[in-house]
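Bug #77: duplicate submission created two jobs. Keeping one. Sequence:
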Amino acid sequence: MIKLLKNLGVSLFIVLAIIFMISQPEEVMNAVKLSLTIWVARIFPVLFPFYLFSSLAIKYSIAKFIGDTFAPITKTLFRTGNISGFVLMMSLISGNPGSAIIINELYSEKLITKKEALHYLSFCVFANPLFILGSIGVGLYQNYSIGVIILLSHILANLILGFLLRFVYRYETNTESKVQNFQKYSFGYYLTETLQKGINTMFLIAGFIIFFNIVIMMLKNSGLIALTYQIIKPLKIPYNVYESFIVGLLEMVSGVDYIYQLDLPKRLSVTLITMIISFGGFSVHLQIQSILLNLKLKYLPFFIARLGQMIIGGILSYLLFPSLYKEKTIQTGKFLSESFYHKGFILLTIILLSIVLIIFIINQLINNDKLKRISQSN
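Kept job's structure:
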């Protein structure tokens, strides 16, 4: 009976969507153009390179090395396996749905179990830091400190959530990750395979963004958002705030733009944006679910974790705002030099990656030397 009702609901939605597209084609075209602009300008340039190199890192055992390097910290804080250090660091750098892509690759290579995948997915869901610092902090507010407040609150919310979940997820972790032998095929083969998968994933993300922006437009123009507002009207929440927050719950980037355009105190505006970014939006949720389709993970634990992250992130943002906010603004003409490609951020990233690479090379040389000695002794 429940399945029948679901099918009827989906069928009704599809019919209404078709009618809406026929009756208001211009609105639909504008929604599609907006979605593609978001994808081209904010999503693809940031996410695709990280997908490419993180996938290759997994195939060439660099993931294991990075995981082992950060394992003492992540195992103590989150009670997870060695590879969790790699998942956490790469998810933080790449942003949504980077964590799902990394977890899917690790599961495909049999480096983690299904239960570990669900655990990592609960607290390794981040928005891209360059998007927060550049697009929001400077691109919208022309204030770098606002980007710092949102990013710091967002990251701390995930870490706090991960620490709390250590008491919920209990399982045997692998003390040693499997080292795969990938000498069977050439680098060109793995690069081609990764590029093909990456392009397919990027277009999948674009499709979800288009879908949800059309849904948002339908909800607004049909008056459904205004109808549901009647339920919370006694709470005296302004309608434009309610509408913007609902849009953000559906599609994160659009919600951020909506809230910024409201005439709200900066502290409240930043708090609401942090909550939306921490929740991620149902668009990101479905992107993650589609990428992890072969794992068949339950959605409810992931959804509850996102609600928890949204609440914790909002509280942290509200508390941190007075001490971290600075009135100094950045001229939009200096955007590239002072924000999105912020020199300090880029320099720190390069230094950290260089250190990891040097340690990895030294470690490989030591291991190769040991193997030679063992083979010579035998």
